Amino acid sequence: MAERMVGKQAPRFEMDAVMPDKEFGKVSLEENMRNDMWTVLFFYPMDFTFVCPTEITAMSDRYDEFEDLDAEVIGVSTDTIHTHKAWINTSRDDNGLEELGYPLAADTNHIVSKDYGVLIEEEGVALRGLFIINPEGELQYQTVFHNNIGRDVDETLRVLQALQTGGLCPANWKPGQETL
């Protein structure tokens, strides 16, 4: 039986990553918490696929908006940092990423994907999962869906802003509108 995660402390993680400057580094939830940042953690199945670059670049193209909301974005797949770097170094015209505003992390041992409940074990890849974690480490939002469908950056930003209001946001709430 699946265990509820929203409203609980998010599973802690530290992973190797390719940073925005294309150098290798590490990302961790603890670091974001120390910096009093929200974390937008999203999983995708594989590098060099068809849907993934559309959403990864869409998130990167809007990264300034996440930054303005004190949020760090981290993309994660089970691919290696070397595969990530090769993909980042591939032009967008050739189905690559070219450059990113946020790190791509490598969950090669599948621990983080398992901890967040998105690992397809028989394939060794993650489902498309998106998790928003507040600066105190509490998981506030999660979505997990089929790998054929890319995420909507507008909706991710809307949900992040709704969570940051601290209020009750009615259906179809938009930033700037009253809360209940």
From TrEMBL:
Superkingdom to which the source organism belongs: Bacteria
Domain Thioredoxin: 4-165
InterPro entries assigned to the protein according to its UniProt record, in alphabetical order: AhpC/TSA, Peroxiredoxin, Peroxiredoxin_AhpC-typ, Peroxiredoxin_C, Thioredoxin-like_sf, Thioredoxin_domain
Listed Pfam families: 1-cysPrx_C (PF10417), AhpC-TSA (PF00578)
Keywords from the named record: Antioxidant, Disulfide bond, Oxidoreductase, Peroxidase, Redox-active center
Gene3D superfamilies: Glutaredoxin
CDD domains recorded: PRX_Typ2cys
Similarity comment: Belongs to the peroxiredoxin family. AhpC/Prx1 subfamily.
Stated name of the protein: Alkyl hydroperoxide reductase subunit AhpC
Species this protein is from: Virgibacillus litoralis
Lineage: Bacteria, Bacillati, Bacillota, Bacilli, Bacillales
